Amino acid sequence: MRDFLQAYGIFAVYYVIVIETLYLTILSLSIKNIFSIIKSSMYSRFQSLSGSEYVPQISILVPAYNEELTIIENVRSLLALDYPKYEVVVINDGSKDDTLQVLLQEFQLTRTEYAGGSRVLETSNVRGVYYNSQYPNLYLIDKENGGKADSLNAGINLSHYPLIASIDADSLLEKDALIRIAKVYMENPEETVAIGGIVRIANGCEIEDGMIKKVNLPTKILPMFQCVEYLKAFLGGRIGWSSINGLIIVSGAFGVFRKDFVVKAGGYRGGYPGEDMNIIIKLHKYMLENKLPYRVAFCPDAVCWTQAPDTLKILGSQRRRWGRGNLKNMLEYGIYIVGRPKYKVMGLITFPYNIIFETLNPYFRFTGFLALLGYTLMDMTQWRILAIYALLNLLFGVLLGIGSLFMEELAFKRYTRVRDNLKMLAFLFFMFLGYQQLGVIWRFLGHIEFLRNNNTWGTMTRTSWKT
Amino acid sequence: MSQIAKAYSFPLFQAFEHVLTFYESSQLPCGIILAVTNGSSEEKIQDLKISLAKAEGFTDIHCFYDKQSSILGILLGDQMLGNTHFHSLFIKEQLQTQRMLAGPVFIASFPEQGESAAQVLSGMVQEITAGMGSAGDIHIYSGKRSSEVKRSLLLVSQDETVNEFLRIYLQRKGYCVYLADNGREAWEKYKRFLPDAVITDVNLAIEDGYQLISKINGVEHGTKIVVLTHKRLEDDKKRSFELGVSDYIAKPFSPVDLEARVRSLLS
């Protein structure tokens, strides 16, 4: 027993070393790329672009389910983006609160039969489309509840433009976010099928009339952890992954897609969480199977601010949902894709990496820790191994975080005060005293839920931006 | 006796002397309202002052009543002509409900309508005592509009840098410039100041530029509207001109060009 525990524990240590080395590799790819990103955005004239007729037109899709508190501010801020030609399509997904009424009243929308679009995807029943010529770029679809993916499909059916952007109804886009993403698209319009923006935590920021007036760090502990976590994930991770075209997810909170390919890949798939990861996998699969050159890009200077859950309960349900979505996608597509050279980066790197180091992460880490703990308890002289395990975790994690913070300060400088940077640095350490472990447990619980066939969304309560 | 000397001997001026000197020396704008009444008392003036402060939310008000000529004088600190005009409507209504109004209401503003506050005031006193205007009229003092008429502009843009740059540039060109950075604020400021021209972007927060333009067109003031925007799309130009804007300037723009166009619009 002791020998087994020791062997497994040592395996876990190696597992951690490998996974963290991979993380660092990705981080160094990110850092390598950040310089060209800085240069390219420094010399780009976004303001001038934002009025040019050569910029592609975008349909912004905003699925809204019970969002009466934030929806008006959100739509108003979307209508004031710096972008030449775009439309905002709000999809009321059978909300049980007053989302629909609030929108109808605020924008004086009336029912219309001539909204155009083409019905290319199956969705649940659409009750009506609303429009007001005073706001020619705004459409509202009222439909029966069918989930987020279903709402996005309904939005695609109505949309008039070749690019679609999906945005969460509780998020705020920076004024130039769309034009920055469009620039990435315009650099290579033939091959770019999807582009993700960066998601930042808005808790603590001063928000006025749907605009971020002042950027602050969250005051509460949980959002603060997520703030650091998101920076690590987006800056440290996604820039690197996108540079080898291995990006497997474009955040549902803000991403831009080629509509034609989304439709060809079958649209969003409803019925279970993780639709944002699902659509990217499907795009990869479609493009690779049809041998089309393509890329899934990431645009770290297109910023979307979002509200982070600030209670353990809501955060837990969000993370369990992510766990479920990840597992489902990996199971469904993994068997086709893993290890097959036909799927290139996806099959050989991204998928194996995701399965071994993301999906199975809780098992190895948690059981490895338990094994080491058991081993240490049986033989108290061996506490050093446990300490090495913990230190490794901490050291790599903090190194990764510092790298991401470094990029943030180098390229984006959203947090200007020295105090803020010290605070973020401190939270990089604190993350390993419970928060990260909680994440591992939640993911594990998510897997259990998935196996029990629980596919509910979980509750996500919002607070008004005005508070 | 010269005009100004006459004014100095006038009780209204003596009461206001201190305040007027202050505005004059610190080059702050100041609105002047004179009304012929049929008698007033300290309490009534206090009431008026309080209700004005309450309704418009500002505190810099000075009132004085001259028993001899039964003229009520009101000074409003930091107010341009457009705004003074706006407040005079309220004051007129107040006086009428109290049945105090017996003649015309004269309004003016300094330094918009004269380099010296004393000159403006004395000119107004002269006109009002000469019996110009009929009862209940609101009469804008024409007097000696100083040789260079100060035109007022409202600049609306989400871009603070552009706003600030243009404000400095246009102020040096002799315009009186107000700023707003979203549609709602622009509409509030427009109603308050009734500027001669509005230079606006079409892409604004809260209410967009098109809505602002339609609202301004609803007010019959002859305000000229110039669109200054990044948008170079035919659609936007078409829509703007359909709404009746006078000019459409796409960024990047030249401030010289902009000022020349505004000047020719206002001349």
TrEMBL record, chain A:
Q: Report the residue ranges that make up the Glycosyltransferase 2-like domain in this protein.
A: 59-201
Q: Which GO terms describe its molecular function?
A: glycosyltransferase activity
Indicate whether Transmembrane helix appears among the record's keywords. yes
Give TM segment ranges.
12-35, 386-406, 426-445
Domain of life of the organism in this record?
A: Bacteria
Q: Does the keyword Transmembrane helix apply?
A: yes
Annotated Pfam families: Chitin_synth_2, Glycos_transf_2
Keywords attached to this entry: Glycosyltransferase, Membrane, Transferase, Transmembrane, Transmembrane helix
Tell me which PANTHER family the record gives: POLY-BETA-1,6-N-ACETYL-D-GLUCOSAMINE SYNTHASE (PTHR43630)
Q: Which family does it belong to?
A: Belongs to the glycosyltransferase 2 family.
Q: What is this protein called?
A: Glycosyltransferase family 2 protein
| Organism of this sequence | Brevibacillus brevis
From TrEMBL, chain B:
Top-rank taxon: Bacteria
Question: From its record, what is one biological process in GO terms?
Answer: regulation of DNA-templated transcription
SMART domains from the UniProt entry: REC (SM00448)
Q: Which residues carry this modification: 4-aspartylphosphate?
A: 201
Alphabetical GO CC annotations of the entry are: cytosol; protein-DNA complex
What are the residue boundaries of the Response regulatory domain, all occurrences included?
Answer: 152-266
Q: Which GO molecular function terms does the record list?
A: phosphorelay response regulator activity; transcription cis-regulatory region binding
CDD domains the UniProt entry points to = REC_OmpR
Q: Which UniProt keywords apply?
A: DNA-binding, Phosphoprotein, Transcription, Transcription regulation, Two-component regulatory system
Which PANTHER family does UniProt cross-reference here?
Answer: REGULATOR OF RPOS, TWO-COMPONENT RESPONSE REGULATOR ORR33
Protein name (Swiss-Prot/TrEMBL)? Response regulator
